[in-house]
Amino acid sequence: MAGREDKAPVDRASSDKGMRVRDVMSRQVYTVSPTDTAQSVARLMKETGVGALPVEVPGVGTILGIVTDRDILVSVVAQALSTSTAVFEFMTVAAESCEEGDSILLAAQKMHDLRIRQLVVVDEKRHAAGIIALADIVRVSPELGELVLEGMSRHREPEDQQLEGISPCPA
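Below the sequence we write its predicted structure tokens.
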């Protein structure tokens, strides 16, 4: 019986291969500028209920990176920096991203491998088109979300370990 239960999430996740990022992502994207302050970013996060914001080049729209609530906590608050510290001083450069047409399995694999909970969804010009979060994946495939969480919490030996029983989809 244990073997059967172990295979159920993989079987369900395999059936979700056809679902695309565009089907589950949040299209409402709030972005910030690299010159915005930690305080203004924290206020925007509070007002919008999000924990991560893409950082874009003002007037151009190209994504430079991402700033998370954890970045503010660890890089600004914990180090007693000023709330007027500019985003470019503590953001994660080169935000991990995916495209709208990617499968949710590919997005989940990337989250698993990188141990992150969200990806910026970009269009062909590398502009933010949305955000896909682990919660979005869990909403449509709890089993796939669980596998991602298990991978994030486990110490892995090989760096290229994949979700158990699931082969990656081509990009």
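Confidence is low (pLDDT under 50) at residues 1-15, 157-162, 167-171.
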